[in-house]
Design a protein that fits this description.
It comes from Streptomyces qinzhouensis. The chain is α/β, with parallel strands linked by helices. It is 44% helix and 11% strand. It folds into 2 domains: 207 residues, DNAb Helicase, Chain A (Orthogonal Bundle), CATH 1.10.860.10; 274 residues, P-loop containing nucleotide triphosphate hydrolases (Rossmann fold), CATH 3.40.50.300. Strand 8 and strand 9 form a beta hairpin. Helix 3 runs parallel beside helix 5, helix 3 packs across helix 7 and helix 9 runs parallel beside helix 16.
Length: 501
């Protein structure tokens, strides 16, 4: 039988195929194998009139069938029943909930269970498995399994059919997301910014093609962890995270990793912004990794000048005073092409809220595969919610937590700059401590890494350590802490390894 020819439909009743019911009619009223009401809620969710009427919430909804391709679903299952190699191919592409017809998901699950036990999966064994589970009638009987096999001449195209099934599932999730967003808008329940953020999250989840499960058995997680360990070992010491450009720091941390929130904290005029720019330079200019800087303190032109000064080794005050020499211009011209072509994005919008930053990062992640986010600096951000926080400390705590969630959601490192209180100035050695983080102790709690920046010559110009800076890794959730000494070249607006001085 050709794939273009519809198979016999054991769900047909009243002259209407069970999978093609108009959405205004509930599928719970179907006659046939599913009439006993044994379906899981997940099968019903979004497939009856309430879920697919376009979000109108009442009469007059769209009489539309959700995106699906039953021929492709049948061909996938037929291929899996013909060949265990097809099972291995298909399982990498689709999940059970990608099937539109609940009975097809039931058959798919039975096939995978047999395959996982190392047993053959063919119409006979799958029928026996379904009988054992009491589900054979719900899928249309053993004869339907033989019909599935007859729907495809070969299992060779199973992965192609699986792609079609997956694409239709993504489209259904998109329709469902649109319905949810419409309902959110009409309900107008809660803070507007929170509603907008929830709507964005719904669409982002669809575009990322995420599965609905948010939990996994330890066995599945261990397999992924072992794969990562093996991949790291095969790199023979190669950097696994986003490189920062500082040799000792990268040796300690192995780079900045997805999901991490990194806090760079210091007293004013210590060089927080300069260090953050160094991290972004290393990622985008040196390693061609897309990064974005949200600057609530400096304008974009000032940032660009600092980047050029650091890259071309042209004194920043020469640029600002118009006293650049011919050699300065030559060095600048030599580095300009690499700097201009780097995938580094700068946003100096004033009064940026957490919601705006999150939306922009999601867009950059989707369009440009964003790998690093820098926010300068945390205390200048606004929560963006219409509900006023109980205190500024609570507001900063909320923003800190949201930055950690952003890093986790987009699977990239987020660097947040933060001010320290006056605690260091009251100590003899002036060295900062994590407890000096200003306005919120939750910053320390949320951060995976806290880097405290300290320069003795900021307090004592004639210090024997003038020109040196300490990167105090005071918290490192996934590794050891340490103090790393680097050189501060303020005239070039950069920090460098001591070996480069």
């Amino acid at each position: 039988m050709s794939i273009s020819e519809p198979l016999d439909d054991p769900w047909a009743a009243d002259g209407i195929p069970g999978d093609r019911l108009p959405v205004s009619r509930s599928r719970r009223d179907d006659r046939g194998p599913d009439r006993r009401g044994g379906r899981d809620d997940q099968h019903e969710r979004g497939r009856d009139g309430a879920g697919w009427d376009g979000g109108g919430g009442g009469g007059g909804g769209f009489e539309r069938v959700p995106p699906q391709d039953l021929d492709a679903e049948q061909s996938v299952l037929g291929g899996m029943l013909l060949s265990k190699d097809a099972i291995a191919d298909v399982v990498e592409i689709i999940k059970g909930h990608d099937f539109y017809r609940p009975a097809h998901e039931t058959v798919y699950t039975a096939i995978l269970d047999l395959y996982a036990r190392g047993e053959p999966a063919d119409p006979i064994t799958v029928a026996a498995e379904l009988v054992k589970r009491g589900e054979i009638t719900r899928v249309g009987g053993a004869s339907y399994l033989h019909t599935l096999v007859q729907s495809v001449p070969t299992a060779a195209n199973a992965s192609y059919y699986a792609e079609i099934v997956h694409e239709r599932a993504v489209l259904r999730r998109l329709v469902e997301a649109g319905t949810k967003i419409t309902q959110m808008g009409y309900a107008a329940d809660g803070d507007v910014d929170e509603i907008v953020n929830s709507a964005q999250a719904e669409i982002y989840a669809v575009t990322e093609q995420r599965t609905s499960e948010d939990y996994l058995p330890l066995g599945d997680i261990m397999e992924g962890a072992l794969d990562e360990i093996e991949a790291i070992g095969s790199r023979s010491g190669e950097m696994t995270g986003v490189p920062t450009g500082f040799t000792d720091f990268d040796s300690l941390t192995n780079g900045l990793h997805p999901g991490q929130m990194i806090v760079i904290a210091a007293r004013p005029a210590m060089g927080k912004s300069t260090l953050a720019l160094d991290f972004a330079r290393a990622a985008s200019i040196k390693n061609n990794l897309p990064s974005v800087i949200f600057s609530l303190e400096m304008g974009r032109n000032e940032i660009a000048m600092r980047l050029l000064s650091a890259e071309a080794r042209v004194a920043l005050h020469h640029m600002r005073s118009g006293t650049m020499t011919d050699d300065d211009w030559t060095r600048l011209a030599r580095r300009m092409p690499d700097v201009s072509q780097a995938p580094l994005y700068i946003d100096d919008s004033p009064n940026l809220s957490m919601m705006e930053i999150r939306a922009k990062c999601r867009r950059l992640k989707q369009r440009n595969d964003l790998r690093l986010v820098v926010i300068d600096y945390l205390q200048l951000m606004q929560s963006g919610g219409s509900k006023r926080a109980e205190s500024r400390q609570q507001e900063v705590s909320d923003m800190s937590r949201n930055l950690k969630l952003l890093a986790k959601e987009l699977e990239l490192p987020v660097i947040a700059l933060s001010q320290l209180n006056r605690g260091p100035e009251q100590r003899t050695d002036k060295k900062p401590m994590v407890s000096d983080l200003r306005e919120s102790g939750s910053i320390e709690q949320d951060a995976d890494m806290v880097i405290l920046l300290h320069r003795e010559d900021a307090y004592e110009k004639e210090s024997p350590r003038a020109g040196e800076a300490d990167l105090i890794v005071a918290k490192h959730r996934n590794g050891p802490t340490a103090t790393i000494t680097v050189a501060f070249q303020g005239h070039y607006s950069r920090f460098v390894d001591m070996a480069q001085t």
